[in-house]
Input
Amino acid sequence: MKFWIVVLVAVLLTANLAIGVSIAPEIIKQLKDSGQLQEIVLSDRAARARGVWQPNDMPYRFGATADVETLHCLIILVDFSDMTHESGFHSEPANFDTLLFSLGIRHPGSMADYYKETSYNQAYLTGQATPWLRMPHPYSYYVDGQRGFGNYPRNAQRLTEDAVLAADPFVNFDLYDNDGDGMVDALFVVHAGPGYEDTGNLNYIHSHAWSTTYTMNVDDVHVRGYSMEPEETGSGSMINIGVFCHEFGHVLGLPDLYDYDYDSEGVGYWSIMAGGSWGGGGAIPVHFDGWSKYHLGWAIPTVLTDNLVHEQIDAVEYNPDTYQLFPYGSGGPQYFLVENRRQRLFDVSIPGSGLLIYHIDENAPNNDNQTHYKVAVEQADGLFELEHNSGADASDPWPGATNHTCFDDFSLPNSHLYDGSQSEVAVANISDSDSIMYADLGIIYVDPLYELAYIFFNDSTGNSNGRPEPGETCQLIFSAQNIRAGVDDLVVTASCSDSQVLFSDSISNLGTMPLNVFFDNRSDLITFTIPMNFESEFANFTLTFTARDGLYHQQFVTPRMLGVPNLILVDDDAGLNLETYYEDALQNAGQSYEHWDISTQGSPAAALVNYDYAIWFTGDTRETPISEADVAGLIDYLNGGGRLLVTSQDFVQRLSERGEVNDTILLHQ
Output
């Protein structure tokens, strides 16, 4: 990228607004616990109303006309009569030269190392720090108990103006006009002491990027934009690079991507422009998100003009390999970005690895509205934890901890646009997380997607009870709907987990299946036979939908009971739906059963004799859990050798009030 124009435009963009680094997570928690967070949020709203932190109304994408390998930055160190640098960490200018501009010698890395890595060797930073300069007013004058955002002159703007004037005798400002446009491109003002963002103390300055109240003329160049950072952390050690790297992102024209109200997290730890500036406690800030790299010109995405199958996606920590997917491939302000993030290099502290999918809306002003972010992470687990302020985690990338391998209009989350319409954007068949991943990338649907409406068995040649039983030849009938793309060669194949089930015709050739139309296979039925000596069980029937000359496959697996069961499950819970607990357990064990619902079928007393085993449940809310007639039927069943399991409340007493029983197994709920 031609770097100089980025810096030029960025300074112009920051000329009328102040943008601050996000508050450290532990400080946010302290503010919440103490009830002070809302006060800070309201204070920020008032500040924005007078021009602080207002969204940038100018474009963030820049053209360029020249190549400049190295950007020279100026660091002005300032202290105060009531906040001397000797009273704290007592750093020297050489410490900042190493912290910010050394290359390859500092562990875990300097700001120059960070930008060299994240720009793919397109941004080289160098610079010098001044000696410590004593300001004409006390620190408390500039902070004014308002984090440095009070009314001029008692604010950080005046501090910067005083810092520039104090440095003028020692600094040739012309050296820091990198592109010859007459403006100092990158000015850092470092104040003694810690910052608000790491302490929660209103009497410390909140690190930010802003501008002076007027254009200052020094050494025949102009000073306007700046960023301001502290000398030390809240714990008293020397400041880490995270806050510098974040604020320099603003100097380059990037907005904050966290939620200003702190009631959600924006992109969270997935970007240095949000919570990721605190990676490694601020010592190892994470990479820029894909949108920020795109707008800086450091990762120009591959724009899809057609669908890509099994596309290789390299880890973005090493290669600027990103993909831009527009709805229907037609352009517009909304689109999706795809990149492969790995816990490597400066990204070592991201929450997990895999494909990150971003939903971008260039028309959205910022990430302050969790229902409509400017840059949103489509979290693979579908829990929307960034929006719900629960934090980023290993389940956000794809396939992630939840092993979700498909993102499209029908997944959760989905690729709908913010108005709820479909985009047809799809990222499917996502491989396991690795330094090289693969996925199918789509902007126009070519594959169908089926929803199964129902499946049943026709045993009209047998006893017509709808259940395949020994000796019966049955037809499998299903209905489905295609909700994605139409096809003209649909074939459905059936199979069964029990090889004793014999298919005489396992295929339904259905041909053309248009979009959003329900269809069934009555024109080409699937037929199978149950052998005479078959023992009752639950078996899985699998329907495989194949289309597009075999390129598309979709399966539905449904458990079905076969044969005549020897167990009856008596549902006497008065509509509480407790049967699912029993049915799940029986099906998982492969045990077939007959479900008898007393509320719709009446008493099962006469039918009990047909079963070797009975499970009768009533729940725990019934005052009269069993009728006298049913008690009599159960006694007859037990005396006839039946095996009974009862789960109920007060059932024991009712059975004991009737004569003797041979075998009673009772469990209390």
User: Anything to note?
Assistant: The chain has a mean pLDDT of 89.
